[in-house]
Every structure is written in C-alpha cells, then in structure tokens.
Amino acid sequence: MSWEENEISIHSNGGTEITKRSLQASLDTDLLQHFQIIPSRVRELSEDKIRILHFHDMPEEPDMKQLQDENYRNKFHKFVFSSNWQMEKFIMAHGMPLDEKMIVLETPIHPFTKHKKPNDSYVVNLVYFSTPQRGLEILVPVFEELSKGYTNIRLHVHSSFKIYGWDDLDAKFEPLYERIRQHPQMTYHGNTSQEELRKALENYHILAYPNIWPETSCRVLMESMSAGLLCIHPNFGALPDTSGGITSMYQMFADHNKHANMFYQCLEHAIKVVHQDEIQNYLGFVKAYADNRFQIDKVKLQWESTMRDLLQRYPDKTSRAIPGKQFIYRTS
C-alpha cells in the first residue's frame, strides 16, 4: 500500500506529491508492502499495516486537532515530520509528547548536475517558482521598481494553482499574471512540468522568494540551492531550518510594505554581486551543502532504517492492530 493518495493529491503535482512519489519509487518494494504512509490528510486506516502519518501541513489545519487525543495518536505507529521547525510547532500546538514515535525525515531532492550559468552581457535572470499566494504579490511591484534602474535583469515566473489541479484559484491572481505578461523584462511561464523547470533553473541566477506563507519545509529552496542560485528569502517558517542559515536570508516583516522595502534592498544587492567570482565560489559551497543534506539516496536510507526498526517492533497483523478497533477506521 505505502503512500496514500486522496481526492486532493491524486490530481496534484506539488512538492508533497513529488516527494512521496520519488520516495515510493526509490524504496525497497518488499519493505513498503508492510506500511500505510499517509501524507497529512487521514482518510482511512488499514488494520493490517504499520501506519505512518507523514506531516506536510501546519498544525492549524482542522484535521490536526485530533492529535490532541491520545487515543487517536495511538492509532499510528510513527509520526514523520518534514522539518524540525514543523515538529516543534505540532508539539506546542497539540501537546504531542516528544517520544520514540516522532522523527524528522527531510524532503529529498535529486541534486542538479554541475553547470555553468549564462553570463552574456551580464544579464541577471531571476526566478519565482512557487504558487502565487506565497509572495508573488510582493515580488512583482519590487521588480517593477528595480527594472527602472537595471535594464539587464529578467524575471521568470513559473507559478499557477494548476500544479494542484485547482485551476479556478488562478482567477484571483490573473491581474498579477497580466502585469507580468505586459512587462518587457518579465516572462510568465505558468504551470511548468518538473522536467522543464529543472532545465530552466540551470539558466537562472537568483531565486527571488519574498515568502509570506509558513512553509513546513521548502522544496523550492532546496532545489534552488542545488541549482546554484543565489537565494533571497525571509527568515520565516521553516526557511531558516531548510537553508541551514547559509543563504541570503533577511528579516521578515508582517507589514507587507516593510517586507517589500527589505526585499528590495536585498534583491538589489544580489543583482549587483551575483556574477562576482567570490559569490560564485560561495554558491558552490551552498550547492555542496544542499546536495549532501537533501539528496534522495541519503534520505532513502533514513526512511528504510526507520521502517526496518518499525517492522521489527510490529512484525505481524496482531501487533499492528488499531487499539479498540477491529475494522478499517474512517474519518469524516
């Protein structure tokens, strides 16, 4: 059975889905058959499997309140978190005990091959490749102002709710998309496949990510670090955890005007220095860090080690039984 799909995830190609599908394809098939791994949203529990709840959401999600109930927590054999920051948030929000059931297994990526960035005429390519509600409304006006003084910069926006199959939600951001389309130094690429995006990232220099959404882990940042981008982002959510504090991170402000001003200053500095040799050497260090920390082969071994320990502890159907239940448990 392994990783679950539900009515939302089945149509999605977001970071959660890329993560779980990559792991499922890489892990030992014989081992996986003993497990039911649920990415955040519980729909049903299988009596005969070892049940892992793999968190990708925030603790404020309505379904997560059930975790305050010890009887509900006892239905699972392991809780896997995507970051240390996320785990701490769940502990604080729901009083979950910090015990042997908890573990942080980070999001895996396929590291980018080493490549040389284009530097013809010192053009600087910026990129935003997340869903629009995470900060695009701050980025666009900041870039519009920067473009008045820097004719050598280009912004590439790969952003759409189509990645989750939520096409209707793009309507709210259509005016913003149109501003991008109409600007001579911006290009709106819309929803881009993972394969196409990875190729495009090799030609970009700066991740412009004024994030205002509390990320529980950030695949965008991991891939940007591995792709050799100079990453500009706030110290918000799990971004400091993900970055290891070695990216170009700035102080977050809840006030969007203050945030935009701080982001403008950091982005302008990045545009000026990104082609310098010392910065390129630094980005090589950032890439090596990300490739070592997040590479899928390493994360795969951590998952398999965790799962083998669980299989030793819960070797048969009797040991895996849901306490007080002898049937498949369904939530509303």
List the helices and strands and how they pair.
Layout: E1 2-3, H1 15-26, H2 29-32, E2 35-39, E3 44-45, E4 50-54, H3 70-73, E5 78-81, H4 84-94, E6 102-104, E7 124-128, H5 136-147, E8 153-157, H6 174-182, E9 186-188, H7 194-201, E10 206-208, H8 219-226, E11 230-234, H9 239-243, E12 248-250, H10 256-273, H11 277-294, H12 296-313, H13 317-320, E13 329-330
Helix pairs in contact: 5-10, 8-11
Structure description:
The protein is α/β, with parallel strands linked by helices. It folds into two domains: 2-108 and 295-330; 120-293, Rossmann fold (3-Layer(aba) Sandwich), CATH 3.40.50.2000. Helix content is 39%, strand content 14%. The chain has a six-stranded parallel beta sheet, sandwiched between helices. Strands 1-2-4-5-6 form a five-stranded parallel beta sheet. Helix 6 (174-182) links the parallel strand 8 and strand 9 (186-188). The two termini are 21 Å apart.
Short descriptors:
332 residues, 39% helix, alpha/beta, single chain, 2 domains, Rossmann fold, disordered C terminus, 6-stranded parallel beta sheet, 14% strand
State the CATH class of the largest domain: Alpha Beta
Give the count of structural domains: 2
The backbone outline, from C-alpha atoms, is elongated
What is the H-and-E element order?
Answer: EHHEEEHEHEEHEHEHEHEHEHHHHE
User: What is the CATH-assigned architecture of the largest domain?
Assistant: 3-Layer(aba) Sandwich
| Share of β-strand residues | 5-15%
Catalogue the unreliable spans.
326-332
Compute the number of helices.
Answer: 13
Distance between the termini: 21 Å
Largest sheet: 6 strands, parallel
- CATH domain topology of the largest domain: Rossmann fold
Radius of gyration: 21 Å
| Structural class estimated from helices and strands | alpha/beta
Helix content: 25-40%
Q: How confident overall, as mean pLDDT?
A: 92
Per DSSP E runs of 2 or more residues, the count of β-strands stands at 13
The CATH homologous superfamily of the largest domain corresponds to Glycogen Phosphorylase B
Strand order of the largest sheet: 9-8-7-10-11-12
